[in-house]
Design goal:
68% of the residues lie in helices and 0% in strands. The longest helix has 20 residues. It has 25 helices and no strands. By secondary structure, it is mostly helical. It starts with 12 loop residues before the first helix and ends in an 8-residue tail after the last helix. Helix 2 crosses helix 4 and helix 5 packs antiparallel against helix 6.
Length: 481
C-alpha cells in the first residue's frame, strides 16, 4: 500500500522541533520557537526573504539568521524554504557551531515529509560527521527510525543495535530497545522479538520500559494466537503498577486478557474479565467490553451489557450540551460527498479545535480540523477548491472540505475503521499501517492496543468517546434524537 504524506502537523512533532532548537548551538532560543508558529512571524520571514532576493546587492546572512528563519519555516511546515536556509549554513559556514544543527534540520524536514530514504541518508551524514554531538546521537537513532518507517524492520533493528553499541547511555536507549522489538515483529521474526523483550525487561527492571516490554509480549502473544501465554502475560502485568508512561493501562490489559480467554473458548472466564472493565462515557475499553458482553451467547452477559449501556446513555444525555453540532450544513454536505459519518467528523473536530475556526496549534495546524498548508496543497484540488492559502484554512467551509477529503482518503486506506482514521489523523497513516500489520486480528481493541505513541492512543480514546456520544445524540443527518 502506497503511504501518503501527512497533511497535518501532529503534536508529536512539536518535540522534534524543540530538539532542532537545542541543536542550533544556542543561537535560536526557546522564545523564538514560541513565536515561530504565529502567522506574523511566518509572513515576516517571507517578506525578508523576498526583499533579500530582489535586492541588487544582498548582504550575506549570518548563520544564526539562517537558523532562525529555517526554524520559523519548519514550524510552519514550509519544508523547502527551511531547507534553503539550512543548506546556506552548510554551504557557507562549514566550521560554524550551527553546522550539525543545520544538517539535522535538513534530515528532520525530509522525515516529516515522509521522504524517509532522503532523511535516512542525511541522518547518517550527521551521525558520521558529528558522532560526539547530540545531533550525531540523534542522527544515529533517527536513521534507524527512518528504516522502521519504510517497513524495513529487520534493518531498523540492526541499526538500533548499532546505536546502542555506540551510545550505551544515550538519551534514547530505552525507546531503542522497544523499537528493536517492533522491528523484529514487523519483519516476521517473533523469536528475535522475544529475545529483545527479555533483554529489555532485564535491563530496565522496575521501570516503565520494563512494563512496556512486558506489554509488547502480551500483544505479540495475541497476534500469534498464543492464547494461553497471552493470559499468563496479562496476569503478570495485572500484578504490577502500570505507570502512564508505559503506554498501556489496567483496562487495556484486562481487555486483551478477556479477548484471549474468549478466543480460547473460555467463555465464562472471558465474561468475568470483560465485566471487570468499568464502562463510562470516557472509557474506551469499557465500551468495547460492553459490546463484547452484548454479543455473548449468554443471557446473564447480555443483561449485564444492557445495564451498563443504559447507565452510559443516561450519562451522555446529561452531558448533551458538551456535544454540539456547529457548522452543521458544511459538515453534513462535505461528509455526504465522501461517504463519511458526519458524527465522526464532529468528534475529530471537537478534539482538534473545540469548534474554534481561528484555532492554531504551536505546530502551525489551522482551523476547525487543524490542517496545515501542505493539506491545502495536497487535497485542495481534490476537494474542489481552486486555491487554498494559509489564511483560508481559517474559513470553516474551506477547512471542512479539505479535512473531510483527507478523512475520506484515510477511510479508504483503512476500510472505514474509525480507530484507524483517528490514529492516522494524529499519528500518521504510515504508522497506522505498521500498527495494523502487527495485529493479525480484526478486533478494534486489539488494534488500539498496538498504537505505539501514547499521545496518539489517548487521541483515539478521546475521539472514540466523543463519537460514541454523537452517535447516541444525533442521527446520521445530524438531527438531535
Amino acid at each position: 500500500m502506497k503511504l501518503l504524506k501527512t497533511i497535518r502537523k501532529k503534536r508529536l512533532d512539536s518535540l522534534a522541533l524543540i530538539l532542532l532548537t537545542a541543536f542550533a548551538g544556542g543561537t535560536v532560543g526557546s522564545s523564538t520557537w514560541a513565536q515561530s508558529a504565529t502567522d506574523a512571524s511566518l509572513n515576516s520571514v517571507r517578506m525578508s526573504d523576498r526583499a533579500d532576493r530582489t535586492s541588487k546587492m544582498p548582504a550575506q546572512l549570518p548563520a544564526a539568521e539562517h537558523m532562525r528563519r529555517a526554524a520559523i519555516y519548519m514550524t510552519n511546515r514550509a519544508f523547502a524554504s527551511a531547507r534553503e536556509h539550512w543548506q546556506a549554513v552548510v554551504d557557507n559556514y562549514p566550521d560554524d557551531p550551527n553546522m550539525p544543527g543545520a544538517l539535522f534540520g535538513i534530515a528532520r524536514s525530509y522525515y516529516q515529509e515522509r521522504r524517509y530514504e532522503e532523511a535516512r541518508q542525511m541522518y547518517e551524514r550527521v551521525a558520521g560527521a558529528y558522532p560526539d554531538t547530540k545531533e550525531g546521537r540523534e542522527g544515529s537513532n533517527f536513521a534507524a527510525s527512518s528504516l522502521l518507517r519504510m517497513g524495513r524492520g529487520a534493518e531498523a533493528a540492526a541499526r538500533y543495535i548499532v546505536y546502542l553499541n555506540k551510545y550505551p547511555n544515550g538519551e534514547r536507549v530505552d525507546t531503542a530497545h522497544l523499537n528493536i522489538i517492533d522491528g523484529y515483529r514487523e519483519s516476521g521474526h517473533p523469536q528475535d522479538a522475544i529475545v529483545w523483550i527479555d533483554r529489555t525487561r532485564q535491563r530496565f527492571a522496575g521501570t516503565a520500559t520494563e512494563i512496556s516490554a512486558a506489554f509488547a509480549r502480551l500483544r505479540l502473544d495475541v497476534a500469534l494466537g498464543d492464547w494461553s501465554h497471552a493470559v499468563q502475560a496479562a496476569d503478570e502485568l495485572t500484578q504490577k503498577a502500570i505507570p502512564t508512561t508505559a503506554n498501556t493501562s489496567a483496562d487495556e490489559v484486562l481487555y486483551l486478557k478477556a479477548h484471549a480467554l474468549d478466543r480460547a473458548g473460555r467463555t465464562q472466564d472471558a465474561i468475568r474479565i470483560f465485566s471487570m472493565i468499568p464502562d463510562n462515557v470516557d472509557s474506551y475499553y469499557g465500551g468495547l467490553a460492553t459490546n463484547r458482553l452484548a454479543a455473548m451467547n449468554d443471557a446473564g452477559a447480555r443483561q449485564r451489557a444492557t445495564d451498563r449501556a443504559g447507565a452510559v446513555r443516561a450519562s451522555i444525555e446529561r452531558a448533551a450540551a458538551a456535544y454540539p453540532a456547529p457548522f452543521r450544513f458544511q459538515v453534513l454536505s462535505e461528509s455526504r460527498k465522501r461517504a463519511l459519518d458526519p458524527r465522526l467528523v464532529l468528534a475529530i473536530m471537537k478534539q482538534e479545535s473545540q469548534f474554534k475556526p481561528n484555532a492554531k496549534s504551536p505546530s502551525a495546524a489551522r482551523g476547525l480540523l487543524q490542517l496545515t498548508i501542505d493539506a491545502a496543497q495536497k487535497y485542495g484540488n481534490r476537494a474542489g477548491l481552486k486555491q487554498v492559502t494559509d489564511d483560508s484554512l481559517y474559513q470553516p467551509a474551506t477547512n471542512i472540505a479539505v479535512g473531510t477529503e483527507y478523512m475520506a482518503e484515510l477511510s479508504r486506506m483503512f476500510a472505514g475503521l474509525a480507530e484507524a482514521i483517528a490514529a492516522s489523523y494524529n499519528g500518521g497513516e504510515d504508522n497506522v499501517a505498521r500498527w495494523l500489520g502487527r495485529t493479525n486480528q480484526s478486533d478494534a481493541g486489539v488494534f488500539a492496543a498496538e498504537v505505539g505513541f501514547g499521545e496518539s492512543k489517548n487521541y483515539v480514546f478521546k475521539v472514540m468517546s466523543y463519537y460514541r456520544a454523537y452517535r447516541q445524540l444525533y442521527d446520521s443527518n445530524l438531527n438531535r434524537r
